[in-house]
Design brief:
Distance between the termini of chain A: 62 Å
Number of helices of chain B: 13
CATH class of chain B: Mainly Alpha
Structural class of chain A: mainly alpha
Strand content of chain A: under 5%
Shape of chain A: globular
Oligomer: heterodimer
Helix content of chain A: over 70%
Order of helices and strands of chain A: HHHHEEHHHHHHH
CATH topology of chain B: ABC transporter involved in vitamin B12 uptake, BtuC
Largest interface: A-B, 51 and 49 residues
Strand order of the largest sheet of chain A: 1-2
Chain lengths: ~300, ~300
């Protein structure tokens, strides 16, 4: 162990490095968490198919670059377009009939779980279960002093926040956004007030598609693409519980916190126990702050 | 005969775990996608008891179930107390199962016990060592006992409380059902059954590996309940046997199994949400009907 001032500086540098890395993974989590929160706030069910969407988005980007030899930006658009269509198709075929029948939420969840199983295992069948490297070569990092910032990390953070800002602007500055927020309060009443529920649903699932595709591509770049990569969405759910249910700022805050904390755990303790740590965070939050950091107390509606 | 024995053993083990999911998801309306975690806990606990402490195997199987049950409040209490919606309980179960698997994957030894981490816990005594009872008979008897016990549970007052909570939490609470206690009980019973199944699995194969207890296993269990029918024990019983036999027959399509399950989930939910045998309760009424006319004619 080296002693003296250099040691402290190295420690500090490592910590800052970890925090930056954590923020960029937190940005990806926050895309996913916002995607969940959107669907949850309007339809009161967790879109379990979301991790399938994410893996699908990542693999479409992957295919676009490898097989169709597209440049990165075009591959991104390609992946987003296909993921939107998948998401909207799933909404129309698997969720809408149940919603219209006013089926119990458990049925919606099982249906979503089924969609997820089908998507993930189809990907597994087509591409195989192996980890594959996302073919992007922006590897040379930027340097601020002695701290390096991965170009893709920076890009992931910037694009994620840009996207979240767009979603926020859409929800709070457009008429359709108003309709969505109104549906989140009460779907039935808002449809009586002349809001077309199906348009709202398609819009929400369209946004979800964009978010999951972007998250999938950046996650694929940061780690790898593999069929069960969607398992990280459990982190996004944990993050949204940490931040507070049904709160979009809470979802972002929770994601950032979780991203940074687990990167620090991975760096200083062991990367094997990173996922275990997130789960511990979930239990602690559930025990002591059941409404999350920014959530409101929600009573069961009658 | 070997094949039938295999179906009885794997089907019986699957059935016991499926009954656990049926009680929790079918009756109490709590969506679990992490029952593999409870199976793993029960399996490893029972295996350690037999291998390291030389506890009799049958006792160890029960102890494995009890251990899984006792671990269940770790997720149950925080999730139920905070009155999170069902979805978040599902996340907690998924996270729990993953956490158990990660720990088992990375822990090589506890004290002097060689758990083997990702390689698996090797050289366990098998069900054959029980003596003159063949393994398939052991598992079949265990499955029947569990089925009987589950039936007793869901028809008891506590089981009816679970059913009420599954139907409508608010209404159940207004009728004086203690939500927290009822849900914890359902989870406890469910985890015990899963633990017993995990223990039997370990003693059948003679070793245990964290890879036995992945999300796929949890999905399979859920499939048994969804296809068989909510609020039914006989439905999941039949489907869990079918789900063991059919993939064996269609081995060349094995890779498509989960894709088909997934699509079937959606189709069942849309067109027949009660499942194959929803609301049909296990009873021996048909025997009584066979018996009654006979008595009538004899009169």
């Amino acid at each position: 162990m080296p002693h003296g001032p250099d040691h402290g500086v190295a420690d500090m540098k490592m910590l800052i490095q970890q925090i930056i890395s954590g923020l960029s993974i937190g940005a990806i989590y926050s895309l996913l968490a916002v995607g969940y929160a959107l669907v949850y706030s309007v339809y009161n069910f967790t879109n379990w198919a979301f991790d399938g969407f994410m893996a699908f988005g990542a693999f479409m980007g992957f295919t676009a670059i490898i097989s169709l030899v597209m440049p990165f930006w075009l591959a991104g658009i390609f992946s987003i377009a296909l993921t939107i269509s998948l998401s909207v198709t799933v909404e129309t075929l698997a969720y809408r009939p149940l919603r219209q029948r006013n089926a119990p939420r458990l049925f919606m969840m099982i249906s979503a779980m089924g969609v997820n199983l089908a998507i993930v295992n189809t990907i597994n069948k087509v591409y195989g279960g192996a980890f594959q490297k996302f073919p992007v070569h922006y590897v040379k990092p930027y340097f601020i002093g002695k701290i390096s910032i991965g170009r893709m990390d920076l890009m992931a953070a910037i694009i994620s926040f840009g996207l979240l800002l767009l979603v926020w602007l859409f929800l709070f500055r457009t008429k359709l956004g108003l309709g969505i927020r109104m549906s989140a309060v009460d779907v039935l009443t808002s449809s009586l007030m002349g809001i077309n529920n199906n348009v709202v649903a398609v819009t929400i699932f369209g946004i979800t598609g964009v978010l999951s595709s972007v998250a999938g591509v950046f996650f694929g770049i940061k780690y790898a693409v593999f069929p069960v990569m969607g398992m990280v969405t459990i982190k996004a759910m944990i993050a949204s519980i940490v931040g507070g249910l049904g709160s979009l700022p809470g979802a972002v805050l929770g994601s950032m916190l979780l991203g940074v904390l687990e990167t620090i755990v991975a760096g200083y303790v062991s990367s094997n126990y990173r996922d275990l740590f997130s789960f511990l965070v979930l239990i602690i939050i559930l025990l002591f702050y059941p409404n999350g950091l920014m959530g409101k107390r929600v009573e069961e509606k009658l | 005969m070997g094949y039938i024995q295999l179906v009885l053993i794997l089907g019986g083990i699957g059935l016991i775990a499926t009954l656990g999911v049926a009680i929790l998801t079918g009756y109490t309306g709590l969506f679990s996608i992490g029952h593999a975690g409870f199976m793993a806990l029960g399996g490893y606990a029972a295996a350690i008891l037999v291998k390291e402490f030389h506890v009799p195997m049958l006792l160890a199987i029960l102890a494995g179930g009890a251990f899984a049950g006792l671990c269940s409040p770790i997720i149950g209490y925080p999730a139920f107390r905070s009155r999170l919606r069902g979805d978040y309980f599902a996340i907690a179960t998924l996270g729990f199962a993953e956490a158990v698997r990660i720990v088992l994957n990375n822990v090589r030894t506890i004290g002097s016990i060689e758990l083997g981490g990702a390689f698996g816990y090797m050289d366990l005594p098998t069900l054959d060592t029980l003596g003159w009872i063949p393994p398939w008979a052991t598992v079949t008897v265990a499955a029947l006992v569990c089925l009987y016990f589950s039936h007793q549970f869901v028809t008891s007052q506590r089981g009816k409380n679970c059913f009420a909570v599954g139907q409508d939490e608010v209404a159940a609470e207004m009728m004086g059902v203690d939500l927290l206690r009822t849900k914890l009980l359902a989870l406890f019973v469910s985890a015990c059954l899963a633990g017993i199944a995990g223990a039997l699995l370990g003693f059948y194969f003679g070793y245990l590996s964290p890879s036995f207890f992945t999300l796929t296993r949890s999905s399979d269990l859920l499939a048994g309940v969804v296809f068989g029918g909510m609020q039914s024990l006989i439905g999941p019983t039949i489907t869990s046997l079918i789900l063991i036999v059919v993939p064996q027959l269609l081995l060349q399509f094995a890779e498509y199994r989960l894709i088909v399950y997934g699509l079937l989930f959606v189709i069942v939910m849309i067109f027949r949400p009660q499942g194959l045998f929803g609301h049909v309760e296990m009873n021996l009424g048909f025997l009584r009907r066979l018996w009654k006319p006979a008595r009538a004619t004899g009169k």
